[in-house]
Design a protein that fits this description.
By secondary structure, this protein is an alpha/beta fold. The protein contains nine helices and 13 strands. The strands form two sheets. It has a seven-stranded mixed beta sheet with strand order 8-9-7-10-13-12-11. Strand 12 and strand 13 form a beta hairpin. Helix 4 crosses helix 9 (about 290-305). The longest helix has 16 residues, at about 290-305. The two termini are about 25 Å apart.
């Protein structure tokens, strides 16, 4: 059996990865004693005994964990921001291209995308790759997420019985345009500049919508929402984890799309709406699913050569 170690198994992402292994008989989980989880020597032992180690850690701790690898056969799947844009790491979004998928399959160092970045990339990467949008297009990105993506402290604040009234409403943050996902949004998509990014954290546990508005007159050539939908549908036609939904002028049948629609699932849905002048494209998924833990397990499945949806909720 494949030996798996989760470094950071007590955090939100690590716990969700652990849950997805509950009914699997093809892996052996190496579980570090809770009181030893910050002991570097003990952690080093577990990492080097594993076939695959998941890193569910802050950036600095993830970098330190990688430095502990001495066994050349150990493969790392990192859910932190630390390695996502480094040239010797594979970006763990297999649907972006066949090259991404093949590199994940044979890779030793896999960096799982950020949650917001996953939604952004699912839309912008093919738009640029297909020549629909130029690399210097002034992309803007609006996004809403459940509070689970903000970590343990934020979860505790949102779930506190005596929380402040401010937590009852959507809260805009990262207004200074320095969000940690911006770097990968630009570099992985091949953009000349970072997008303008406006994320909101909201009073529900999990689920996310990432929205990209387009002005057709600024695209490589003027097109329609229907044409963009057809291009994206063809791009993802063989994907089981990224699904382009049927075209509707208003996006959905009733004109509404809930950010928690796919909470608990590990796949992603893309919606295209609009007209000849303005197009709205939205990616809907669980920030803990395709936006984190589910994406990490999907990468592991590809690395092991098994069905990529094995153990995932699709």
């Amino acid at each position: 059996m494949t030996k798996i170690f989760i470094d950071g198994s007590e955090g939100t992402t690590g716990l969700r990865i652990f849950e997805r292994f509950r009914n699997r008989n093809d892996i052996e989980l190496l579980e570090i004693p809770s009181e030893q989880r910050k002991n570097s020597e003990i952690k080093k032992q577990f990492i080097n005994e594993s076939d695959i180690t998941f890193l569910c850690l802050p950036d600095s701790a993830a970098i330190e964990a990688v430095s502990l690898v001495e066994n050349p056969n150990v493969r790392i799947i990192d859910a932190s921001t630390a390695h996502r844009t480094l040239p010797d790491w594979v970006y763990g979004f297999p649907e972006l291209s066949m090259q991404h998928r093949e590199s994940i399959a044979v890779g030793k160092r896999i960096a799982v995308p950020g949650c917001y970045a996953s939604g952004f990339m699912s839309i912008v990467y093919p738009l640029v790759k297909l020549g629909i949008a130029p690399s210097d297009y002034p992309f803007a990105c609006n996004a809403v997420s459940g509070y689970s993506g903000a970590g343990k402290k934020a979860i505790a604040l949102y779930e506190s019985a005596d929380r402040e009234k401010a937590f009852d409403a959507p809260r805009l943050y990262a207004m200074g345009q320095m969000h940690k996902h911006l770097k990968e949004m630009q570099i992985i998509s091949g953009l000349k500049t970072k997008p303008t990014f406006q994320p909101f954290v909201c009073d529900y546990y999990s689920g996310m919508i990432v929205n990209i508005p387009l002005q057709t007159e600024l695209l490589t050539k003027k097109t329609t929402a229907e044409n963009v939908h057809a291009a994206l549908a063809d791009y993802y036609k063989n994907s089981v984890m990224v699904k382009v939904m049927p075209f509707a002028e208003n996006g959905t049948e009733d004109g509404f799309l809930s950010a928690n629609k796919l909470a608990g699932f590990d796949f992603m849905e893309i919606y295209v709406a609009g007209n000849e002048e303005r197009i709205s494209i939205s990616s809907c998924f669980d920030n803990l699913g395709k936006g984190a833990s589910g994406a990490a397990v999907q990468c592991m499945n590809i690395m092991l050569g098994c069905e990529e949806t094995f153990g995932l909720s699709v």
